[in-house]
Write a structure and sequence with these properties.
homodimer; 364 residues; alpha/beta; Isopropylmalate Dehydrogenase; 2 domains; 10-stranded mixed sheet; two-stranded antiparallel ribbon; 12 helices; binds 3-isopropylmalic acid; magnesium ion binding (chains A, B); IsoCit/isopropylmalate_DH_CS (chains A, B); 3-isopropylmalate dehydrogenase activity (chains A, B)
Amino acid sequence: MSKKLFLLPGDGIGPEIMAEVKAIIDWMNSAGLAKFETDEGLVGGAAYDAHQVSISEGDMEKAMAADAILFGAVGGPKWDKVPYEHRPEAGLLRLRKDLDLFANLRPAICYPALADASSLKREVVEGLDILIVRELTGGTYFGTPKEIVTLENGDKRAVDTQVYTTPEIERIARVAFELAKTRRNHVFSSEKHNVMRSGVLWKEVVTRVHAEEYADVQLTHILADNCAMQLVRNPKQFDVIVTDNLFGDILSDAAAMLTGSLGMLPSASLGAEDAKTGSRKALYEPVHGSAPDITGKGVANPIAMIGSLAMALRYSFGMIEEANKLEAAIAKVLADGLRTGDIAAKGEATVGTKDMGAAVLKAF
Amino acid sequence: MSKKLFLLPGDGIGPEIMAEVKAIIDWMNSAGLAKFETDEGLVGGAAYDAHQVSISEGDMEKAMAADAILFGAVGGPKWDKVPYEHRPEAGLLRLRKDLDLFANLRPAICYPALADASSLKREVVEGLDILIVRELTGGTYFGTPKEIVTLENGDKRAVDTQVYTTPEIERIARVAFELAKTRRNHVFSSEKHNVMRSGVLWKEVVTRVHAEEYADVQLTHILADNCAMQLVRNPKQFDVIVTDNLFGDILSDAAAMLTGSLGMLPSASLGAEDAKTGSRKALYEPVHGSAPDITGKGVANPIAMIGSLAMALRYSFGMIEEANKLEAAIAKVLADGLRTGDIAAKGEATVGTKDMGAAVLKAF
Ligand SMILES: CC(C)[C@H](C(=O)O)[C@@H](O)C(=O)O
Ligand SMILES: CC(C)[C@H](C(=O)O)[C@@H](O)C(=O)O
């Protein structure tokens, strides 16, 4: 049976890097490795330009019906002045919320070939392999009240609300513990229980889920500020880090940068497993943004986008072998010395988006 | 006229490092450099053990009446189970809130002698000099509702509230712009306006204060996740970073760790200037914590605590020359090769808390 892939290239370099993924999908279909049916939609500024919204209802329906979504990037200075509810990011946030993609998996791995591109010392990051499990549909991102009100004296008052409930924390904790079992068996749970009530509940629920269901996995609680510090000081102490939406946003970006190769890192946003079909909604996207400064120049690094396809093969289609092969192909072209501008050392020769994509496909 | 210094050593290594500061204060008094009257109180776990609260009303009164407070550190596993409202951190949070210490200044500087202690490459951090200006009395730390409620089905729901008003943002922005003028004239304002309404208001107010009062200072807006990334990638691009309470907590800890010398970094928490007297309430504290693991061993690094006294001389007592001299004394002992355990390279000889304190005093 064929599988539905819905592509949302978005803005900036999104379409350029998505093109390389399409080439790989086409090849997999023609080689008989898979039967992917692809469709494409608009999101972010591209959707705004066409429909004055950050994602159309039609595309939301297609996203809902897809077996997996591949998402490029959204945003850019062109849309800085659009109404707040239609800003490019709103399309992404709506996809996460409406599809209930609560589990955001952000691996931060350091490719040996690229360890020198990191601002950290080689010995601190070489072999780094962290998985950040970020809660993605709760917290400050979606809690209400969320508003700006004008007070009597003309001043304004802005409010955002951090909300977490027991089941929200339970389900993300389970994802983290399950993933840790396939890795080094150690979960770090990060919050600010010394200041936030949501942190108190977070710690309490993670502790209970651990004791009741995952006592064989090692659990360490770490305050979010200390976690940011320890990521800089000695990132290799970490295995899986589970944290809330806002801390996850910041900690995962810091972790990504440790590897020296932001353009390299994919992510997966997963929904709950359907009890009947065993399938789950899922969106895959690079960790990097739309990079308006290099858009249209053919120099963007497609590896994070290709790595996102590899994650889709693994988590949405159970194609573990193909996922491993595609990731090995990425590692191989890097070991062979191929570099896009973002990961090239001073003076090193660089290739463009298309050449990098083609090389990965060839090595696949 | 004599000046009142109120000392709150707190828990863990707090008393040990405060002892070194006391020696410097005594020497300044006896050398006729200053006329400091000191008094001492309890905070955190130490206060809980004595009075079952995180700070007593008597000590709060003394804190209110002081010209400056020197604060050590609070917390430790001993008090993990005390009632939430009496946890050690509550004493610090109450001091900040009741004294309206809204401006938290956290310098992250990299001493040349210590550049190799950083996990980052020497060239990335050598000469680093960032000042983080963190809003300290608003946001998620103090907004209400702040509660955990039990729902009908037995699940719990935790809420924290991020609140900012126009005047709160205005006053912290002014502090940042004023400080930038004495430095490299560049303020980075960090928030998440793409997700949070408080970020939208933050950006709007900072932009207006800049245009109306500080157009000659360079202003760059940067999303908090990107700021965390850029701190890791290229920290030397920053001068002053102004941000909210929670982002400031995390970003300043990450920045502190870049320097490779957490035990080295002081901070100042300042209130508003009294229109009549020109004085302001102020609390000075190291950025590091109470370090229960090394407590009582005489090995803690007193430099962050001594640096906090230097900040007090500068910001509370206008003793700029003495502040500079004390900071130069710190730099000198480091350049001379003196190292406590936390900043020693492998195999390097180390000195204890008392020797380090005495060496700084001698170089002062
Ligand atoms: C684009 C933005 C809304 C988003 C977020 O804050 O979650 C991004 O930073 C991310 O981490 O995916
Ligand atoms: C001790 C704790 C309450 C405090 C905070 O979160 O502000 C600390 O981390 C700090 O940064 O001063």
